[in-house]
């Protein structure tokens, strides 16, 4: 039985930010939903306002793949066991809520260092805020052309 959008989002939140506390998980959920409702650019074309399309877009979330770099990825959404907090945050994001410091952030990553770079690769994003171990980036005008 395929997972519902809510279940997939809860699993992705747990997988991508389960150790980041409520705020970190809300930040990741905000990015995912910002992509779902992106008004232009790559995510608008690929996502078509569909959570499933965003989660499974190739090359976006390591947690959404069984294999990463030709090796089995044990930390994937299929191996997650979401708890109530993950469902609550998924519901919060699906209802239209966003973590305010993020703005319209479409990307996040863990730099594994105390510093966040100012721009997301290709100049399509500019640094917005750091939440826990992740750096978050808002789209630039260049993103619209992706």
Textual characterization of the structure:
With 146 residues, this protein is an alpha+beta fold. Helices cover 36% and strands 15% of the residues. The chain contains 5 helices and 6 strands, in the order ααααββαββββ. The strands form 2 sheets. A 4-stranded antiparallel sheet has the order 3-6-5-4. It has a two-stranded antiparallel ribbon with strand order 1-2. β5 and β6 (134-139) form a beta hairpin. α1 (5-17) crosses α2 (21-36). The protein starts with a helix and ends in a 7-residue tail after the last strand. The model has no long low-confidence stretch (mean pLDDT 94).
Q: How would you summarize the topology of this molecule?
A:
Blueprint lengths: L4 H13 L3 H16 L4 H7 L3 H5 L11 E2 L2 E2 L11 H11 L12 E3 L9 E2 L4 E7 L2 E6 L7
Antiparallel strand pairs: 1-2, 3-6, 4-5, 5-6
Taken as a percent bin, the fraction of beta residues is 15-25%
Helix content: 25-40%
- Total number of beta strands: 6
Return Rg in Å: 14 Å
Question: Strands of the biggest beta sheet: in what spatial order?
Answer: 3-6-5-4
Helix count? 5
Q: Show unreliable segments.
A: none
Main sheet summary: 4 strands, antiparallel
Structural class: alpha+beta
Mean pLDDT: 94
Q: What is the terminal separation in angstroms?
A: 34 Å
Taken in chain order, the helices and strands follow as HHHHEEHEEEE
The coarse silhouette is globular
